[in-house]
Amino acid sequence: MNYLSLKIKIILATQSENKLTEFKAIFGPLGVTFLPLSQFTKHSPKETGDSFAENAIIKACNAGELSKWKFPCLADDSG
Fold it and tell me: Is 0.90 topped by the overall pTM?
């Protein structure tokens, strides 16, 4: 399988343009396109988790709901 021919779209659940640019630079050559959360909303969900991991899950699930789960979603929370 030629991984360079993959065409994958993933929502990056962040409002950070810098983070989006970094992900595009790293994964773009592999055929992965990152869609910004701003394509679906201008608002971030309330981060009510008790850990960075829980907040990342909240953000990824929010992005999934906004897109009606059309694309996989990725988020992090580095505090």
Answer: no
